[in-house]
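Technical note accompanying the year-one report. For the benefit of new consortium partners, we illustrate the data format agreed upon in the data management plan: each record pairs a sequence with a structure-token string. No post-processing was applied to the example shown here.
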Amino acid sequence: MAAAVAESERPARARVLLADDDPLFLRTFVRSLTAAGHDVTAATNGREAALLLGGQPFDVVVSDISMPEMGGIELLRLVRARDPDLPVVLITGAPAVETAVMAVEHGALRYLVKPFDAHTLDEAVTRALRGHRVARLKRDALAMLGNLGLGPGPDVADRPALEASFGRALDALWMAYQPIVQWSSRTVYGYEALVRTREPALPHPGALFDAAARLHRLEELGRTIRRMTVIPMPQAPPEAHLFVNLHPHDLLDDMLLDSDSPLLPIAPRVILEITERAPLHEVKDAFLRIAELRKRGFRIAVDDLGAGYAGLISFAQIEPDVIKLDMAIIRDVDRAPTKQKLVRSMVELCRETNTLMVAEGVETAAERDTLIGLGCDYLQGYLFARPGEPFPSPTF
């Protein structure tokens, strides 16, 4: 995403709570944020800010770290206890490793060091507002659909039996490919590689990954999948992109960034899809590793409106190139006005941020036509082709 915030990409105005005990700073940035189109409420210390938070809704909190009565870190803790998604931008004139670490631990969206100009603060507030909109959409989706995240798989008490089943599953592993189409041009944009196994004891990917996690063999599974994924790529259309799912713990595997990585030679064609099987914040240096992958030419996708763990902080720090709408949102969208509202909101947000959006799980012509009417151009699902041996041709 571009560093600057273009006027045409600016979202709706934000309700900003700005807390700082420096009167000059407070006056200057209340004036600049108001001029930028935001509604700003000022507080001269953390306790005053906390009282204001209890009385009215805000979209973004901007707080100095060092203030009388209640500092910015304490205010951040209070915000997180009330609302896990409300973005907080912390500012300081005395940066320190300790406060930076605490800011990250409690989910601060940005950590700005004084002095900075009005444009820097406006950019931080604008991006925070976009993130807050994503978080609200996520909460709406989960409230509507229930938590559809992958829970624990079937309990397998016999570890030797699980080891044997997992070994057979690896030997019987194969990759299916499903096209992602661009409707407006009636062309294939790319293929998503989907892991499959012929081992009946682990009949679906969820069971396979659960077994790998229990046996501490996620790294082995991830390497096997990535190696097998690229084997048929010489047969793929040369312009087609490859979507490769990553378990968050795959980010810990140094082989992913190694010069011998099987994906590296085709990195510009690869979109790494961060699945939501585990919270990204539990993976050490996850966002630094994602940045390194980008430097090597990969693009990043997230299932932000899926049924997993991703929220405001993950979305804001990843700044994905691609967002995939979970099939639970797409199912019967033609008959569900609430789902249509969610999709329309996501389409608008993706346009603002120049993010490509894919609607997955399209199964009927009615769903397709509704999605197209809502502005979705990139589609995936059984209506076009089922996952299969490389590479299925879609039916339009």
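Partners are asked to follow this layout when depositing records. Residues 299 and 356 are 11 Å apart (CA to CA).
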